[in-house]
Amino acid sequence: MTQFKYRRKSRFSPARRIGFSLLASLLLLSAPGASVAQIPSKVTVAYSAVSPIFAGVWMAKEIGAFEKHGLKADLVYISSGSITVQAMVGGNLDMTIAASNAVVSSILRGAPLVAVGSITNRPAMSLFVQPEITRPEQLQGKVLAITRHGSSTHFLTLFLLEKLGLQDKVKIQPMSGTREVDAGFRAGMVAGAVRSMKPGPKGRVLVDLPDLGIPFSMDLIAVKQDFYKNSPKTVEGMLKAYIEGVAALRTRKELAYKVLGKYLLGGGDALDEAYEYAVKYLDRQARVEPAVIQTVLNWENKGETSVNDFFDNMIIDRIIKEGFVEKLYK
What we know:
This protein is of the alpha/beta class. It is 43% helix and 16% strand. Helix 2 packs across helix 10, helix 4 packs across helix 5 (100-108) and helix 10 (253-264) crosses helix 11 (269-281).
């Protein structure tokens, strides 16, 4: 007699059984001791000039500092601080490093931004002029180049002309970007320009702006207020990456020269000048000093406005207190 074995039919379809298996796997991976590879958060960081003042963020990108802090960063060059800030407000940038006057002015006009860092708290530029100019009064009736209206070069040129008693006596010519300013200077189209580096081999320093004792941030590190509120860990990671980049300039000099050559598209003696400039002026801690905000507010005739409406050092102060910066130089 033939015997048949009864096989109980499963109540669940194959698709549902696969679903249960996947759920079980996820529960196992989420258990203590299990590890899941995290996908880095993608961030876009904009800088506003081809200048060694941005060497810190370039180094951060090249040494993998952003990835170290769980971020995949794309660097975007947008000529001029004022344009960079506009792109920040209306676009998809996560962080911008742009002229402090452009950042502060935009916040005054309602832009939802906050400064979370400063790359340097003094005006790291000089007024370079043609070799035949030896005295400030010789600039009267001549042309000085800037990148764009609202840029740091524009702000500092106006500030300097007022200090020299040459306000409204010198023509200011926007040239679009730093490379265009340098080209115009070398061609003799302009008498001079406020620049971080010598715009041409014949250029000479007429005024060194740090000597004026003006508290001024060359560029503030700014983010949108809602991003700062909703993604503080991402902001912290970006700031730590930047600070590591600044440290690497000093501790990895050979690589720093290669990085400067890559982003400045140059070499030779210009790299020596660029490296010395970056090491001299870039602050190790990247902290915003209230006085640099006040300088811009005074210029905008808004000196009574509270500086605390424009920046927040909370994350930077915590990074410093934890000893993060100090450890990078040991």
